C-alpha cells in the first residue's frame, strides 16, 4: 500500500513538473512568434513599431491569455466529466457554446441591419466589448435554459438530455439568423472556429479578467472536489454520505458555466481542450478530484498555448484558427488512445 501511494505521488510530482516546464517553455516561444512568423530580435531600427511594444502589448498578453483560456476550459472539462461520470463530457454540453454563438450572431445581424456591419477581424474596441459581453451572457443564458428545461440539477440524465436539446435548438436559431442576415455568417464561422486574436483580442485587460475568473473559480472547485469524488461512486453511495446532491450539482453546474462562459467570451468556441485535458491527467497521474481539477486546468493551459503558437507560426503571415488545431491535436490523441486500448 505504501509503495502504491509513493508511486502515485511520484507520478503526480512528475506531471506537475512536466506541465510547469512546458508552460514556461511555451510562454517563451509565444513571445517569439507574431504575424510575420518567428522573430527573436528585441529591437529593430528599421521597424515602424518598436519590438518592445509588439512583445509587451500584443504577444505577451496573447500568450498569457491563451494559457488562461485553456486553464478555464480544462477545469470546466474536469468538472463536466466528474459531474456526469462520463469521460466524453465537455464544457459545452449544457448549451454554453450554442448560447454564446447565438448571442454573437444576433449582435452581428443587428449591426448589419442598422447599416454598421461588423467584421471580427478588425472591429473597433467598443463593438468588440459588446461582442464579448454578448458571448458571455449568451453562454450563461444557454445554461439557464438547460436548467429550466431540466427543472434544476436533481437528475443528471435529464440535465444532460436538456443540454443536448437546448444546444440543438439554439444552434438552429443561430442558423436561421445567419440565413436572414448573411453578413453575420462570416463572424459566426470565425467564432465557431475559435481564436485568441479576433474576438476579445487578448490584451492586458482580458488577461486580468481571465486571471481573476480563474482565481475565483479554483477555490470553490477545490472545496467541491470531494463531492465529485463521491458522485463518482454512484448516486446511492454519495447520498449515503449525507451529501445534498441537488444543491451540489447546481453549484457544480454554475461553476462549470462561469468558467466556460468566460473562456468562450474571449476566444470563441475552442474545441477539445476541455475534453482532452482531464484524459491527459488521468493517463499520466490518476488521482482524486482535488488533484485532477487544478492539474486539468494546467494541462488545458499548456494544450491551448501550444495550439495558439502553432496557429500563429505555421503559415505566417496568415493565421490558422486555433480551434482547428486543438481539434486536430485533441482528436488525434483520442484516436490514438482508443486504438491503443483496442489493441490491448
Word description of this protein:
This protein has 344 residues and is mostly helical. Helices cover 75% and strands 1% of the residues. Strands 1-2 form a two-stranded antiparallel sheet. The chain is globular. The protein starts with a helix and ends with a helix. 48% of the residues are buried.
Q: What descriptive keywords fit this protein?
A:
344 residues, 2 strands, two-stranded antiparallel ribbon, mainly alpha, globular
How are strands sequenced across the largest beta sheet? 1-2
Written as H for each helix and E for each strand, in order along the chain, the element string is HEEHHHHHHHHHHHH
Shape: globular
The helix-and-strand class reads mainly alpha
Strand count, sense and barrel status of the largest sheet are:
2 strands, antiparallel
Radius of gyration: 21 Å
- Number of helical regions: 13
What does the average pLDDT come to?
83
**Poorly predicted residue ranges:** none
- DSSP strand tally: 2
- Determine the strand fraction and express it as a percent band: under 5%
The level of helicity is over 70%
Query: What is the terminal separation in angstroms?
Result: 26 Å
Topology:
Blueprint (H helix, E strand, L loop, with lengths): L1 H29 L2 E2 L2 E2 L12 H34 L11 H18 L11 H26 L5 H25 L2 H11 L10 H20 L1 H8 L2 H6 L4 H23 L5 H12 L4 H25 L8 H22 L1
Antiparallel strand pairs: 1-2
Helix pairs in contact: 1-12, 2-7, 2-10, 2-11, 2-12, 3-4, 3-5, 3-6, 4-5, 4-10, 7-10, 7-12, 11-12, 12-13
Amino acid at each position: 500500500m505504501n509503495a502504491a501511494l509513493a508511486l502515485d505521488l511520484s507520478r503526480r510530482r512528475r506531471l506537475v513538473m512536466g506541465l510547469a516546464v512546458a508552460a514556461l517553455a511555451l510562454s517563451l516561444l509565444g513571445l517569439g512568434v507574431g504575424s510575420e512568423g518567428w522573430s527573436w530580435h528585441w529591437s529593430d531600427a528599421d521597424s515602424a513599431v518598436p519590438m518592445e511594444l509588439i512583445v509587451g502589448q500584443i504577444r505577451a498578453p496573447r500568450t498569457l491569455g491563451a494559457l488562461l483560456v485553456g486553464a478555464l476550459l480544462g477545469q470546466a472539462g474536469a468538472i463536466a466529466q466528474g459531474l456526469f461520470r462520463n469521460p466524453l463530457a465537455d464544457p459545452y454540453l449544457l448549451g454554453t457554446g450554442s448560447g454564446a454563438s447565438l448571442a454573437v450572431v444576433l449582435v452581428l445581424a443587428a449591426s448589419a441591419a442598422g447599416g454598421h456591419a461588423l467584421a471580427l477581424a478588425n472591429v473597433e474596441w467598443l463593438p468588440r466589448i459588446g461582442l464579448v459581453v454578448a458571448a458571455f451572457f449568451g453562454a450563461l443564458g444557454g445554461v439557464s435554459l438547460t436548467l429550466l428545461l431540466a427543472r434544476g440539477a436533481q437528475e443528471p440524465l435529464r440535465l444532460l438530455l436538456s443540454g443536448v436539446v437546448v444546444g440543438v435548438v439554439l444552434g438552429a436559431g443561430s442558423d436561421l439568423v445567419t440565413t436572414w442576415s448573411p453578413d453575420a455568417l462570416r463572424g459566426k464561422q470565425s467564432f465557431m472556429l475559435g481564436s485568441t486574436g479576433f474576438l476579445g483580442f487578448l490584451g492586458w485587460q482580458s488577461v486580468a479578467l481571465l486571471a481573476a475568473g480563474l482565481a475565483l473559480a479554483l477555490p470553490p472547485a477545490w472545496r467541491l472536489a470531494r463531492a465529485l469524488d463521491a458522485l463518482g461512486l454512484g448516486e446511492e453511495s454519495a447520498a449515503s454520505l449525507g451529501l445534498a446532491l441537488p444543491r451540489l450539482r447546481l453549484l457544480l453546474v454554475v461553476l462549470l458555466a462561469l468558467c466556460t462562459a468566460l473562456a468562450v467570451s474571449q476566444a470563441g468556441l475552442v474545441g477539445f481542450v476541455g475534453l482532452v485535458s482531464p484524459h491527459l491527467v488521468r493517463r499520466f497521474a490518476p488521482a482524486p478530484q482535488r488533484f485532477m481539477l487544478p492539474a486539468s486546468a494546467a494541462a488545458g493551459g499548456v494544450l491551448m498555448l501550444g495550439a495558439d503558437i502553432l496557429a500563429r507560426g505555421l503559415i505566417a503571415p496568415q493565421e490558422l484558427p486555433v480551434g482547428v488545431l486543438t481539434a486536430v491535436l485533441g482528436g488525434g490523441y483520442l484516436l490514438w488512445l482508443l486504438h491503443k486500448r483496442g489493441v490491448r
